[in-house]
Amino acid sequence: MILKSVFFTGLFCVVLSFSGQIVSVVSAAEVKIGVMNVQKVLVESVSGKAAKNMFEVKAKELKGKFEAEENALIALQQDIEKKSSAWSAEKKETEVREYQKKGREFQAKTEDARFELKQLQDKELEPILKTMQEVVDAYGKKNGFTVILDSKIGVLYYNNALDVSADLTKALDQAMKK
Fold first, then answer.
1. Is 154 left (phi over 0), alpha (psi -120 to 50) or beta?
2. Which helix (H) or strand (E) holds 122?
3. What is the pTM of this model?
């Protein structure tokens, strides 16, 4: 029993001495923190603007594709609302069923279009985000940063002097030219 307590006391002292050395090493190192706005870097970079424009063109194209079908659905709904009181119950039921069927088909097509847009967005952003990660890593190492944080994810306050977004936007533009 005494041997056990001597052993744990000795172990405690060894751990304590090592933890004191670790704390002194960490406190001796300079901590340099940078803050960036990832969204701002993406939106302001040349490649980010190009991806956004491509995405908007595709979205506008798909919207135009569905506009006539959407207008036809609206017209059918208005027709049902206006004429349903004069129709027989069977005719009304048939028209409502047809409207619901067309509505489901339209909804399926718009969901497919949203999925297509999401895939396009991911495809366009993936190489930019990969390059941005490489740029941030290189920038952080080159400029002696301990950490670079995204200002939109969990940072409640930061001094604007810490914001390195503009430098990273330029670096991303240069890296994407390659």
1. left
2. helix 89-142
3. 0.63
Domain boundaries, the chain: 1-30, 31-177
* Predicted confidence (pLDDT) per residue in 32-84, tens digit: 888 899 999 999 999 999 999 999 999 999 888 889 889 999 998 998 888 88
165-177 and 89-142 helices, crossing angle to 10°: 100
The two structure tokens encoding residue 91:
């005719």
**CB-based contacts of 174: which residues, under 8 Å, 6+ apart?**
none
Q: Is 30 left (phi over 0), alpha (psi -120 to 50) or beta?
A: beta
CB contact at 8 A, 125 and 49: no
* DSSP state, residue 143: T
Calpha distance 172→177 (Å, rounded): 9
